[in-house]
Structure formats: structure tokens, C-alpha cells
């Protein structure tokens, strides 16, 4: 995985939210807010000039929507990495954002650590869907998310050496639980929970729990 800082373009028209998001990344060197934009037009121009690693963007912008902004940015560079960060849980907006080419659809009530994880993995090429989004897409049966039973069968076929307990732990990892929280949820020791997570990482051939969660989501496991 690339260990250089992730340079992001932050696109948010509300100053209070923009300042709050920017403060999340201050004082650490993993993610850097390279530039900011308050509108879709400004975001397109900033991207054209600066080519950030990741664009973190709201849908509700004052001129053109974040979805149409994403389309314009991807016309400039088809490999642009765009994360939609929004409070909107509209089925149509979710589908429009993903069809436009967004790499991730994330709700604003997400935890700070999870958001940082998503930004870093999207930079590496991952796709991320908020857990609240997956059931909507699956219910719509739009082809973006495979049916649950099919994906579980496919997953088990590809990873037959994953035990039932490890499968349970993996689902909790995807939900963002820490080792101590997993231990409490499953009534096991924290040491045992950590061992399960380590086994999962090894069996899925990934580098860390973040990549394990991303892989599980991409394969429609949760």
C-alpha cells in the first residue's frame, strides 16, 4: 500500500462543516487537505489545476450538484477518485452517484477513524459503500450489488477456509467494531478476537483489517 500522504480536495459549501472536516486531518501526516472548494465549478477548476489523490465531496452544492461535478471531473480524468460524503440517503441519488463514477458513497454520521480509512483505501483503488446504502441497492436489484445468497456462496467458494466464527468476526469488522467491541459482542476474550482478525487478514490475502472490510463489501458479503 502507498504510504505517502493522501492529498484531498475538500468540496463542501457550508463553512462550518468544511472547517470541521478539515480539522479532522490536522496534526497528522496520513491525509492532507491540499485544497478546498465551495461549489461544483470551483471544484472542477481546482481539480484541473491540482490533481489531488481523492476528492471528498458533498452532493448539495450551490451551483451544480456533487453528482454532476463528479461527471465533469471524470471527463477530465477518468481515473479520478471521488468520495461522496453526504447526509442524503435517496435511492436515486445513490444510484446516480455510483453511475456517475463515484468510488464511495458515505453518510456524514460516519466515525472519524472510518472516514480516514475509507479515504486511504479509495486512493488505492477500493470502492466503498456505507452499510446503510447496501440494502437499498440490493432491494433495487440494480446490478451494482450482487444478491446476498449468490455472493455468500461465491465468497465461501473462494474462501472455503474461513471458519463460521471468522465469518462472524469479519461482519463485525465491516461494521467498524474494534477488537474489544468484537469480544464483547461475541462473548469472547479480546485476545481471541484479535487472533480471529489476524487469521481473517491472512486468509483473505490482505494487509490489514481495513482491506479485509473493503474486500468483504466489494464481494457483497454484507
Provide structural commentary:
This protein has 222 residues and is α/β, with parallel strands linked by helices. The chain folds into 2 domains: 6-140, Rossmann fold (3-Layer(aba) Sandwich); 148-218, Winged helix-like DNA-binding domain superfamily/Winged helix DNA-binding domain (Arc Repressor Mutant, subunit A). Helices cover 52% and strands 13% of the residues. It contains 11 helices and 6 strands. It has helices spanning 15-24, 40-50, 66-76, 91-100, 112-123, 134-140, 148-158, 164-174, 179-186, 190-203, 209-218, and strands at residues 6-11, 31-37, 54-57, 82-86, 104-107, 128-129. Strands 2-1-3-4-5-6 form a 6-stranded parallel β-sheet, sandwiched between helices. Strand 4, helix 4 and strand 5 (104-107) form a beta-alpha-beta unit. Helix 2 runs parallel beside helix 3 and helix 8 (164-174) packs across helix 11. The longest helix is centred in the last third of the chain and has 14 residues, at 190-203.
Summarize the structure.
The protein has a six-stranded parallel sheet, with helices on both faces. It has helices spanning 15-24, 40-50, 66-76, 91-100, 112-123, 134-140, 148-158, 164-174, 179-186, 190-203, 209-218, and strands at 6-11, 31-37, 54-57, 82-86, 104-107, 128-129.
Amino acid at each position: 500500500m502507498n504510504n505517502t500522504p493522501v492529498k484531498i480536495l475538500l468540496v463542501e459549501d457550508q463553512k462550518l462543516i468544511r472547517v470541521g472536516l478539515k480539522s479532522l486531518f490536522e496534526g497528522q501526516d496520513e491525509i492532507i487537505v491540499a485544497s478546498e472548494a465551495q461549489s461544483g465549478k470551483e471544484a472542477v477548476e481546482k481539480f484541473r489545476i491540482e490533481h489531488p489523490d481523492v476528492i471528498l465531496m458533498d452532493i448539495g452544492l450551490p451551483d451544480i450538484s456533487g453528482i454532476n461535478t463528479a461527471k465533469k471531473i471524470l471527463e477530465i480524468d477518468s481515473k479520478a477518485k471521488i468520495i461522496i460524503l453526504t447526509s442524503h440517503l435517496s435511492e436515486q441519488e445513490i444510484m446516480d452517484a455510483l453511475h456517475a463514477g463515484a468510488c464511495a458513497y458515505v453518510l456524514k454520521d460516519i466515525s472519524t477513524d472510518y472516514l480516514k480509512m475509507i479515504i486511504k483505501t479509495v486512493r488505492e483503488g477500493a470502492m466503498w459503500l456505507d452499510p446503510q446504502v447496501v440494502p437499498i441497492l440490493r432491494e433495487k436489484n440494480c446490478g451494482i450489488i450482487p444478491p446476498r445468497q449468490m455472493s455468500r456462496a461465491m465468497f465461501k467458494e473462494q474462501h472455503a477456509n474461513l471458519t463460521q466464527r471468522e465469518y462472524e468476526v469479519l461482519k463485525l469488522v465491516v461494521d467498524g467494531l474494534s477488537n474489544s467491541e468484537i469480544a464483547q459482542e461475541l462473548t469472547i476474550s479480546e485476545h481471541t478476537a484479535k487472533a480471529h482478525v489476524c487469521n481473517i487478514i491472512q486468509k483473505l490475502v490482505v494487509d490489514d483489517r481495513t482491506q479485509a472490510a473493503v474486500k468483504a463489501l466489494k464481494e457483497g458479503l454484507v
